[in-house]
Design goal:
Helix content is about 50%, strand content about 10%. It contains 10 helices and 8 strands. Strands 1, 2, 3, 6, 7 and 8 form a 6-stranded parallel sheet that branches. It binds zinc ion. Zinc ion binds next to loops.
Length: about 260
Amino acid sequence: MLTFGRTNIIFGLALALSIVLYFFYSFPFWIFGLLLFLYSLILFYGCYYIRSGFFMPVICSLPGKNKQIVLSFDDGPHPETTGRILDILEKHKAKAVFFCIGKKVKDNPYLFKEMVNRGHLVGNHSFSHDAYFDFWSWKRMMADLKQMNDVSENTIGSKLRLFRPPYGVMNPNLKKAILRGGFVPIGWSMRSFDTRAKDKDKFLKKLNQSIAPGRIFLFHDSMEITGVVLDDFLKEVKNRGYAVVALDKALPLQPYA
Ligand SMILES: [Zn+2]
């Protein structure tokens, strides 16, 4: 598997070879430009494709071929949309995992408590979800994740261990913050794109077509359309003989500290 460490070794050797070719065999200078371009391309893939496991292993699906899926919801809690989603999940007796943003938990602590009271898991999705989070130092990232965990501890009495990177972006600094903070990174294998979906029917059709063994679905409980289609989606999940499982029941995980 392509990892950050292996990529650095391969490109280190390629750079040494290019230097030899440039100085001793008069290869053109653009060979260095080509190397830089390829290196940037691979790094970009590692940062933005969470399933690559490029910087560190990230849980993105369940092992095996059992007809079970996991539902995950990011970016809440939201005072207008999260309640409806909680009610639909309860109707279907489905347990999900909510990756919440600390500042929103601070504004809506009752919804965060409600998630836990109704048997769902809650995870850390940073305190700020800052637009420049991915460019921060690992210390600043860690402080932000800790701030979210402090809010969680004040609200439900537990610190969170499950973590989903803001914007799903991984990088070496975030890896360091995750390891130092003792977090378990959780990705997804099916991105619903509910943040962009406009047409309810098309959206539901796409979701229904995506049901497959072991998939972890990424939704946003902050999006209205998610609550609009969730009931029909869960009916289809059941009709197809699938079960919605809690992440800590399907995998040996310790979600809280
Ligand atoms: Zn997010």
